[in-house]
Amino acid sequence: xxxxxxxxxxxCTVTCVFVFAQSPKGEIKPGPLHHTPESALGLISQAQVGLxxxxxxxxxxxGSFSKSPKPNNSxxxxxxxxxxxxxxxxxxxxxxxxxxxxxGIASFAPxxxxxxxxxxxxxxxxxxxxxxxxxxRATEIEITLKALxxxxxxxxxxxxxxxxxxxxxxxxxxxxxxxxxxxxxxxTCEENYFVALHKTAIPDDQPTLNIISSTDPYFSxxxxxxxxxQATGHxxxxxxxxxxxxxxxxxxxxxxxLTFTQAKGPVEGFLKDLFKF
Length: 277
What we know:
The chain is an alpha/beta fold and 277 residues long. It is built from 7 helices and 10 strands. Residues 1-21 have low confidence and may be disordered.
């Protein structure tokens, strides 16, 4: 091999490694993406709730809805929270719900994995399967909202829709106006590998908070396979006409920013202003 051919071989090797790094292959564990009557009940009974002392009459409660203490007659604000792809096992969710309850705000996080053997994945996968998943998660908002409307301790005029990552996509896309406001963690309302179209449907007059790391490993330009060279890494473009929207970028943060101090302050201010307390 002469010097010229050696250089070409080296260049090819470097290029091949670069392309592989840019385009990892995800995995899908096939499974259903339609709730049955049984799994819809489980979505609610297996939900993780956070209840403040005003509801429990004692200590703050964070745990399964099916095991929650008998509520008193208080009606309080509630955050309907859509978990991400890792489910309710993410420690930060319970910590966040505990913190919310300390503010006097209840939270209700339905368990998407109540559907036995539902599809799971490691990104990136094809957009068709992502969209099937997003449509499935959207049905969970409708099911959970109906359940919340039947609970004696829920102030139905003060329900906020929130979610993180996979769970934030249906939050952004929800068309109804039943919610007092919305919070989206770790989602950018942009076209990228995760969606065919972002389809953000938040009314321009609805209070909205978007919080994400400036270097989110999935939805910022830090991700080499984001699939959108113009991606800004936040919901600014989709919310440009919303005068009641705020965007918080956390410099150098990870994908899960729920419990970051830089996120808690804006969330507390947003909810207290919205609920007037």
